[in-house]
Amino acid sequence: MTNPLYDALFAPQAGQDRPFMTLPGGDQLSAAGFHDMLARFANALRALGVGPGERVAVQASKSPQMLAVYGAAVATGAVFLPLNSAYTPDELEYFITDCGAKLLLVDPARRAALAPLADKLGVRLESLGSEGSFDALADSLPTRVTPEPRSDDDLTALLYTSGTTGRSKGAMLSQRNLLSNAEALTDLWRFTSDDMLLHALPIFHTHGLFVASNVVLLSRAQMIFLTKFDLDQVFSFLPKATTMMGVPTFYTRLLGDARLGRDTVGHMRLFVSGSAPLLAETHLAWSERTGHAILERYGMTETNMLTSNPYDGARRPGTVGPPLPGVSLRIAAPETGVELPQGETGMIEVRGPNVFQGYWQMPEKTAAEFRSDGYFMTGDLGMIDDQGYVNLVGRAKDLIITGGYNVYPKEVELVLDDMPGVLESAVIGLPHPDFGEAVVAVLVPDRATPDLGAIDAALYDKLAGFKQPKAYIVLPELPRNTMGKVQKAALRNDYAAYFKETTQ
Ligand code: AMP
């Protein structure tokens, strides 16, 4: 028996002295150097008694060490569990208790503060990084590792969903889930050992960890591994890169900088965007300024990537492209799961080797989100257009039902975004005494304060009456999480009493 994911992504190959990572200070780490670290870490996991199937939780700064822990977990069959670095000790307590981690790795600077919590939870605590206790333990161990035999369905990683409402759920990802997706993306996006990816995403999330890193590891490409998205650093490393993957805010921030032009990115071969909607306007502005069409793709923690605009062929702004090879995707009536005719909007449901194995220790929640024929309900609403491209209209839980009518926020947002004085918008439903929910537009002004009366009047012949906002709220910016997703649940929460207050 072999260990398919280890063999494909991490096993040493000929030419191991090739560079693998360029670090922010300019230092390079070779493929051999990375593998030595990974092997020592794998031996350290074994020395600490972390067996196959046991969880290794990591809440640490982005570093080669953190990626090597992922590789070490794959090698030993342990389950890698990265945690958002912004989580507080209280949140950490929930995750560690829920997953029953055997080992928790943190930054050296946080070790002392977290020691009492680790004692209370009975989890072994070590620190990770050049001054870390885990690294010190690993230092004296061999740089060779015999990988644990694993099968396709063995659990490899547990990633907690961002969970804007309710408890965060642990998505169980198997070897096959990760490998099938890495293979599909590498092939579709034409990654080869000649590539150099500019990697400025966090690695506690599926985008930076699996999409970006797995594709680089599988294709034996190189990456510039930046700890965060910093414009000066990005501009200084762009000349060396061939590709970049980012969330939409990377692209809007780059567009806001005078240094971006055809000369800066002329040599690049691919820009990929995902994790949140890329406005068609941003796509067009980017093409005009740089000559590159950003390739937008769509996926989620539970399913890995699901669709992608093509490498060759039209990358259509405002769409996320056709399903990836191997992924079955249908649009179904949310209540019944019956497939809808092409062109209709409904729940996006998916099946394939990429789809996770369920939520950790939540069999009922898992069962509730799968149809009896094995399709997973993504919770995203969308439609497939006449060219087979998926168009997303938002999360099902963001759908507004006002006076019995369905309003898809994206339809209203697209109209609002085009209005003079509006930089961007978020349309939400707020509790309303007459309508059940009322459509409310949250606007971020461009420069001057937008003329709300003029906007309201302009909507008159653009949108049916029930879709027109009943109120406007102007904010300096929209609340977003680290992946650039607008936090509509937070907005609904902040303004929950809006119509109570204004109608009394
Ligand atoms: P996460 O599990 O944190 O990756 O979040 C997954 C969710 O992000 C999906 O269910 C979508 O709602 C959203 N998402 C991902 N990619 C895109 C995209 N290209 N456009 C719009 N929303 C996206």
Q: Enumerate how many helices there are, as a single number.
A: 17
Q: What small molecules accompany the polymer chains? A: adenosine monophosphate
Class by helix and strand content?
alpha/beta
CATH topology of the domain at 4-16 and 28-150: Rossmann fold
Order of strands, main sheet, comes to 2-1-10-9-11-12-13-14
- Ranges where pLDDT stays below 50 over 5 or more residues in a row are none
End-to-end Cα distance, whole Å, is 70 Å
> Largest sheet at a glance?
8 strands, mixed
- Average residue pLDDT: 95
Strand content: 15-25%
Question: Could you tell me the radius of gyration in angstroms?
Answer: 23 Å
Q: How would you describe the shape?
A: globular
> Given this structure, which CATH class of the domain at 4-16 and 28-150 is correct?
Alpha Beta
Helix fraction?
Answer: 25-40%
The tally of beta strands, per DSSP, is 23
Query: What CATH architecture label of the domain at 4-16 and 28-150 applies?
Result: 3-Layer(aba) Sandwich
What are the defining features of this structure?
single chain, Rossmann fold, GMP Synthetase, Chain A, domain 3, 8-stranded mixed beta sheet, 4-stranded parallel beta sheet, 17 helices, 32% helix, 24% strand, binds adenosine monophosphate
